[in-house]
Amino acid sequence: MAGERINLLGLPRAQLEAFVAQRLGAKPFRARQLMKWIYRRGADDFSAMSDLAQEFRAQLREGAEMGGGQIVTEQVSTDGTRKWMLRMDQVQGIETVYIPEPDRGTLCISSQVGCAMDCTFCATAQQGFNRNLSVAEIVGQVWLAQRELTGSRAAASRSGRVGGTRAITNIVFMGMGEPLANYRNVVPAMRIFMDDLGYDLSRRRVTLSTSGLVPQIYKLAEECNVALAVSLHAPNDELRNELVPINRKHPIAELLPACWHYLDQQNGRSVTFEYVMLDGVNDKPEHARQLAGLMQGRPAKLNLIPFNVFPGTRYRRSPAAVIARFRDILNDHGVIATTRKTRGDDIDAACGQLAGKVTDRTLVRLGAKLGSGARTAVEI
Ligand code: SAH
Predict the structure, then answer these.
(1) Rounded to 5°, angle at Cα 226 from 222 and 227
(2) Residue with CA closest to ligand 1 atom 18
(3) What angle do CA 214, 179, 88 make, to 5 degrees?
(4) Is the C-beta atom of 231 inside 6 A of ligand 1?
């Protein structure tokens, strides 16, 4: 039986109910009790689930488990940002970052080990791609972080009460990987984040950030309602083809209508467009004017991200005055633009600095593949 243990972490509610009923012969409300223990209290031990019958707990110990990876290292920035390196299997490592602010706590999670998108300014891209994370590994990042942040490990085993205050108020897919290239596992994980017996976050507090996988944006519009962020980074195809190679497959003229469609379907307020500020590359006033042309009158917000350096990069960060000017031009054209505050860069936890530990990678380089006209083997 041990070999057939089912991992309850990330199991959708209906499947958990089916497992509880069919495998354990228990009533469906047991599944709801289990969810509360797993997600609200961060329990990792069936024995501690004090409102479940002894016999049921014994059945669970035998037939089920809860596991989402292990924390290997923790680094804490001077600004309070924390970065965890998590081990997901024998060799692969991924990174998860917690960003505390006075009014919220944001967890930045990974969706893949490495990334195949090959964006030229991103440290994760340099690692290549190894594999998709499972639902349990995606949800496991939140589960592990919540336990670390609230000390619910101790609280759950002592009294079953929720430990500490709510530490994670927002979840963003802005760690390693392209979430829409792992659609199959990312969508069920987001459902757990929003389930009232899961992490109970509103749809505005779960953000999926994508480099622009157009067919999957249309699919998502039909199936799941979360906040959408899109890594634009350039106001024209020539430049975006170079910086974000997926643009060669799905150019700006296809990407933007997909974003507006998503909002229409989901009744959303706006799409956030991320724009990394690269010195002398995409930060000129003419770029700001072109960008304003694309966004004017649209339900869009621009998020300017000062480039974060990493070893071996050829890019530099735009000077603060250049970023401010760029933002002003957008604002003058009626486009809402803000500059993202860099957090955790002293521990390499800022945007694009997450490198994890990707070994055994298949060096899938999207740029090279699309350049030669070949079709790529990864799910894009
Ligand atoms: N694959 C997803 C999530 C990436 S990380 C996506 O492409 O949207 C979140 C944001 O950080 C993206 O907009 C990404 O382009 C940006 N980013 C990547 N490398 C960066 C760097 N070195 N400095 C600043 N931002 C970076």
Answers:
(1) 120
(2) 352
(3) 160
(4) yes
Say yes or no: CB of residue 244 within 6 Å of ligand 1.
no
Ligand 1 pocket mutation pick from 126, 173, 209 by most atoms within 8 angstroms of CB: 209
SS3 (DSSP) at 336: strand
Just list the catalytic residues.
95, 351
Question: CA-CA distance, 232 to 120, in Å (whole number)?
Answer: 13
Write down the H helix ranges in 64-111: none
Q: Cα separation of 284 and 262, whole Å? A: 30
Ligand 1 pocket residue status of 351, Cβ below 6 Å: yes
Considering the entire predicted model, what is its pTM? 0.91
* Nearest atom of ligand 1 to the alpha carbon of 115: 1
Ligand 1 pocket, residue 122 CB under 6 Å: yes
Alpha-carbon gap, residue 282 to 221, rounded angstroms = 30
CA distances from 48 to 42, 43, 155, 161 (A): 11, 8, 10, 11
Q: pLDDT digit string (tens) for 239-276?
A: 999 999 999 999 999 999 999 999 999 988 999 999 99
CA distance 22 to 26: 8
Taking only the tens place, the pLDDT of each residue in 169-193 is 999 999 999 999 999 999 999 999 9
Chain centroid offset of residue 314 CA: 26
